[in-house]
Each structure stands twice: as C-alpha cells, then as structure tokens.
Design goal:
Chain A contains 13 helices and two strands, in the order H-E-E-H-H-H-H-H-H-H-H-H-H-H-H. Chain A has 321 residues and is an all-alpha fold. Mean pLDDT of chain A is 87; it is low at 4-17 and 317-321. Classes of the chains: A mainly alpha (321), B alpha/beta (431).
Chain lengths: 321, 431
Amino acid sequence: MSTTAVESGTGSGTTPTPPGNGASDRARAEQRLGWLLAGPAFVVMLLVTAYPIAQAVYYSLFDYRLTDQENISFIGLNNYAVVLTDQIWWISFAVTVFITVVTVAVELVLGFALALVMMNALQAIRPVLRAAILIPYAVITVVSAFAWQYAFSLDSGFVNSWFSWLPGIAADTDWFGGTYTSLLVICLAEIWKTTPFISLLLLAGLAQVPDVLQEAAKVDGATWWQRMRKVTIPNMKAAIMVALLFRTLDAFRVFDTVFVMTNGANNTETVSFLAYRQTIARVEIGLGSAVSVLLFLSVVIICVGFIKGFKVDLSQARGEN
Amino acid sequence: MRRARWRRALAAGVAAAALVGLAGCGGAPAGPPVLNWYINPDDGGQAEIAERCTAASGGQYRIEVSILPRQAGEQRQQLIRRLAASDTSIDIMSIDPPYIPEFAEAGFLAPVPADVAQRTTEGIVNSAKEGASWNGELVTVPFWANTQLLWYRKSQVEGTGLDMSKPVTWDQVIAAAQGADSTIAAQGIRAESLTVWLNALVESAGGEIVTNPSPGDPEGVELGLDSPAATRAAEVMKAVSAIGGPGFSTASEDENSNAFQDGSAMFQVNWPFIWGKVNSAVEDGTAEQATADDFGWALYPQVTPGTPSAPPYGGINLGVGAFSPNVDLAYRATECIVSEENQKQYFLTNGNAAAKLSVFTDPEVVEKFPMAPVIAQSLQQAKPRPQTAYYSEVSESIQRNYHPSAGIDPVTVGPATADLIKAVLAKEELL
C-alpha cells in the first residue's frame, strides 16, 4: 500500500498569488492592508524581543559587573572564549540536550496517544476529557516543580512508600542526591506538565486528516495499524513537526524545574540556569550575556535545523492550508 | 450590531484603564516623609517595630515595610539590582551580614554618622560588631544576631556517657552518634548553609577561608583553603556526612529540625528558631511536651579539643541606602529600630536573638529562651563568614566543590576550591 497524503497548499484555493510586477491592483491593496494589520505587532515584537537580544549581544562584548560600573571595559569575544573553554558549559549543554531529547521523545508518544483518546472519545465525555488532559498545562511550572519535589522528597514525599515494592526504591531513597535520579524526576515533571501542549497540537493535526482517505483505506481492507502508518501519520506530518519544533525550543530553555528541585546540585545545571547564575547571582552582566547569546544561538540552530532539515511548514500550525 | 458593541466595550476598557492610571499618580501624599524599609520575611516583628517607631517619632517620619524574597541570596540580588540603578526608594534595608562588604564596596550604603555608630554599638556582641563593619569601619547598624548551637536529645545522649555540661568536640559527637546508632543533622544541602558550616569548621580549626579580602581588586584576594586547618575542617565535614542520615546531601535547616524533632537525629547544629518551632508544635498538639523537654543545647562543637569553637554568625544589620533622599531621618529611624526594647520584643515574639548583650539577661527573655546565656556566649565566640566584596562568588564556589560533602577528598578539595575561586574572580571561569 502506498502512502496517501494530501499536498498542502492546494486545498481551497485561497493561497494568494505572489504580488509582483504583474500583480493586480487588488493584490497590491491586499498586500498593503496586510502590512498595515501586521505592522504594529511587528514593531512591538521588535521592541520587546529584538531590542533585548541586541542589548545582550552588545553587553556580551564587555567586562561588566553590576556592582563595579566604573570599570566597564570592552574585551571583544573574550567572554565567549571563557564560556566555550569551560567544562561547566559543556556539562550543562549535555544535560540540557539530555533533558530535551528524553522529554520531547516521551511527550511525543504520550501526546499522540492522548490526542487519539481525545479524538475518539465519546461525544458525551469529550469536553470533560479534554479539560482533564489539559489541566497540567495550566499549572504554573514553578508550582508543578514544587509539587513533584514534595512528592519525591525524603521527609514529605509519598513516592518512596508507595513504590517501595519496585526494585531500587527504598524508604530512604534520596532522589535528589544523585545526577540521574534528579534528572529522572526533572524529566517526569516536565513530561507531566507539557504533554498536554503537544497532544493539543497533534489533535489539531489529527482533525485535519480527511475522513475520505480513512474510509477508502478501510474499504481496501487496511488494518488499524496500517491506516495509522500509511494514512494518518503521513497526513499529519506537518503538525507533528511543528509540535516537535515548539516543544524542542521550549525544552531547551528548561529552567524553573531545575531551579526549584536541585538548584543545580549534582551536575543538573542547564544552559538557562548557567545564564541565570552568571547574570543574576554573580551580577557579571558581560559573562552572563555571553551565555544567553550562546543559548539564543543554540535555539536558532535548532529552529533552522528543523525548518530546513525536516521541511517544516510553519503555516501548517495555523491551519492555513 | 456585534462590531459596534465590541468597539464600545473596548473604548470603555481603555477609559477605565486611563482612569486607574490617573488615580495612581495623584500627587505626593501629605504628612511626614515616608521611609521605605526593605525587610527580610519574618513573623511580622519588623512591621510591628516599624509601627512603633513611626508612633515614637512624633510625626517626623513614617516607616513603611516592603518584603524581600525568602532566600538571603535573592534578597541581595533584588537590592543590588535596584541600587545599581540608583533606586531612591530604598531608605533602610535589612541586610544579611555576609553581603555587607559588597554593598559597602559598591558605594550602595550611606556612611554611618559617628554619633549613631557610637550609640548603636554600645554593649553589642563581638560578632555583630564585626559583621556590621567593613575595612575596620562600621557601615551598617547591628540589629539582631544569630548563631548556631549544638542541639541534642537528652534521652539519647544519656546512655553514651558524653558529658554535655562541658564543651564537646566534633569527634566526640560523631563517636556518640555512632555508638547510639543514630545520626547527626547538619546542613549538607548545596546552599548557603553549607558555606556557613564549612566556615565555622575552618574558623574553629584556627584557619580562615579568606586571608586577604583585597578590597577593590578581585584578583588580589588570598585564600586559606590550602591550610592544615581547612584540611582538618574538610575531614570533620566528611566524617559527619558519613553518619548524617539518608538525605544528608539535600538537608537544609528545615529538614534537619524535622529529623531532630522526630528523634531520627540525636544531634544537630542549627539556629535557635528550632526552639520556637518545637514549642509551637506542642501548642498545636502536633508534638508532645516531652519532646520539647528532651531538647538539650550546648555551644557549637570544637574541632581542636580545648580550643573554643567559632560558631556561625548570622542575623540582620540595617543599611541606609546611599541614594535615599532622607539619609539623616533614616539613621534616626534605625536608632529607634535597634533600641534595646525593640530588640527584646523582637527576640520574644519572633525568636530572633538580640545583638545587645543586656537583652540576654532580661528575665522575660530567659524565661522564654532558657538557652539565652548559651546564645550570648556563642555570639561572643562566633566568627562571621568570609568578609569580601565578592562573597557570593566565594560561597557559590565552595558549594560547587564541597557538595556532596560525603564524597569530598579533604586533602584536595581545599586547594581545588581556592583555584576555582581565583579563576572565577579573574573572570576566567563560569560558576
């Protein structure tokens, strides 16, 4: 059986023709209206994102300590050299990549399952079910981090006593006493919190799969699994990629959970945490800005990698096809 | 029409927002000048003192309190960020002593007038005077002083033969806990409290973490972490961690006070807040009176037998913001805040020990805090944490290398940390 996918962009014929020399007056008017409508938002975005980013890039070239403002000096790329030659940067980078890969992979599988459940649930319980699945996403990350920390902590936690029948878990298992156990709890909390987000995006993708194709496959005698692999997933590839991209960008900036649970102990520091510590705790604005800029570059690389490598069409997320 | 209704609703919203905005800038309030006092969170004692001093000023000023974050490090971060932007709204601040040199060095503190300095340091415990000063000069006004004691469960110590009426050593405490198959609670978590513990051990062994604070030149800071005293301190730290119970590497003051209260630890080094905590647990019915009666206290353990220990010193001192428009009034207000009566009330209501020695012999204080004489003695012996304008870097570096304390190598951890601190201060390494 061959893969059956609907080409995006050929749907209802609303795709505007690119306005050029030969564009009609109407197309030009529409373009002008488009700029007028998007313009204010574009200016606001420049103010609230481009300006701080530019400022961070500028500060990262200076030796700038907040409590010693008389001795600010230009040092070129020295801050970047310090960061990139430091072992701590690379450990934090590895930890961040680990958390990102583990959480996004698990969330994708779980999120897909939840999306299927939401899609196929009985009409009567569908609203309740959707609300129930989305609740964790409505919880503030710091609050969820504290809740998970209390659950696993030695003095107030219940995990040790509930799961003591599992090998490796005893009444005195100190989850935050080692790197891998700490990372496990951090990943669990992240997964619990953001799976609803991914399942919401995937639900939108599922809804876009045309029923006609499903029915045709059924008539052809395809099993559930075959339909899933050959019809459903190929048709929602764009939605999957957008969900993955958004979550990867988000997961790479993980901060709150680590800050609350371990405060960076036992090599659980992430890149964002490193930026926080240099900028806010050490008040070394220059060095901290360099870490932030490197974090920004990592995120840009991930983003470009996804869009170019997997041919993600971001307009899919907005249902524009 | 739906669209028209939307537009009307939007217009109404904008108008309402504008009105609220206008009401917000309704000009300066009449009456005496307002002094903003940035306080650390407590049980309401500082707000009460603010009210009393406002009333006592006879209309000269009105003190308003603003609450800072819970962690000392976060209090420092907020104050520093505001002061770096020359915030004129900061008149008085409650500052944790180790950060005072940084504030002073950055020029964030208004100089203490000589007469205020003289009046507010009369009859003050040694450690509080030292902790309120930088470069031999008083830069803040001592308010209240804290210290850690060695707490023990009388019933559990009884059978071990350890005589708690005399000063004991860490080695004796470890042996007693091992003999009784119990644990010692100390602050093994990667946090400021780990530095507090290490500093007390190093100072008790006769050493110093920072030997030359080198004001103004971070690269000139000299460290004593490669000294025999620092090695000895690390040995004690490792030995205590080994019998510190399962959650030692994540235990803060709160976890430890719980472990001690429920009897799973027979010793703990901790601040006196635990006395108030157990007594209110008894009042609430969540603890037995017998538990509180079983609490014993003694001076912080010695590292070298016969050499008095150097217990941790903490507490709060009052700084006056350099950019405040009311420096004179603010200093007048601090004098009221730190009066003997206020220190006593604060001790009684919030359990925070006074900086003035005379408070510790007050009958009311002694009745409520039977360990007051021991606290006073401990405060006289106590040593502040390393006094340097780069305290945050020093402390964070220590926490990075000394945690988890059960896994340190006492011989190499000190020199390695000294190297890290030097590299961090030279801005050659991240933290």
